[in-house]
Every structure is written in C-alpha cells, then in structure tokens.
Design brief:
Helices cover 45% and strands 28% of the residues. The protein is an alpha+beta fold. The chain has a single domain (2-96), classed as SUI1-like domain (Translation Initiation Factor Eif1, 2-Layer Sandwich), CATH 3.30.780.10. It has a five-stranded mixed beta sheet with strand order 3-4-2-1-5.
C-alpha cells in the first residue's frame, strides 16, 4: 500500500497540470519600470499550477533573473519571443497582450 500512496499524489498532480494547460490561456506582456527597464509579465495561471516551477524553467531557458509575485511571473528584460516559444513547447496556450 505504501507504494501506491507514493504513486497517487504524483499522478494526480500530473493530471491536474495537464488539465490546467488545456483550460488556461496565459497572458504575456511587457511593462517599463524605473530607468526605462523592461519587465516581461506572465499571468493567468490557475491556483493549482506550480508557478515557481514554471518560473524556474523560464529563468533558466531565457538566462535572466526574475521572481513570482501574486501568481505572476516577472522576468527581467523583453523576453516575449523566448517565453512564448518555451511555453508553447510546454503545451500552454499563450496570448500576447499589449
């Protein structure tokens, strides 16, 4: 039984992540901050999505810094093309908001 208990939460989380990808449409936008610096924002995640895991993936693939605030990923710089490509490979629906 212990083997089954260890198996169920992981498979359940995988199922939930797959459902989240199908249901949610992520919004990507850029804003200017102090001194004219651009920041890329990725929002629209469900509450069940592991946003920190996605942020870690995006930061490593884009080779930039960033953070998660209020379920919104903030990446340093104008990373729209890279983020869109990465998220589409991960099978998320992405839309660009100006």
């Amino acid at each position: 039984m212990k083997d089954l208990d260890a198996f169920l939460p992981n498979s359940l989380s995988d199922v939930l992540e797959t459902l989240d990808k199908d249901r949610t449409s992520l919004k990507i936008t850029t804003v200017k901050r102090a001194y004219g610096k651009k920041v890329t924002l990725v929002s629209g995640f469900d509450k069940t999505t592991n946003v920190k895991k996605i942020a870690k993936l995006l930061k490593s693939q884009c080779a930039t810094g960033g953070t998660v605030k209020n379920n919104v990923i903030e990446l340093q710089g104008d990373q729209i093309r890279r983020v869109t490509t990465i998220l589409e490979k991960e099978e998320y629906q992405v839309e660009y908001v100006r």
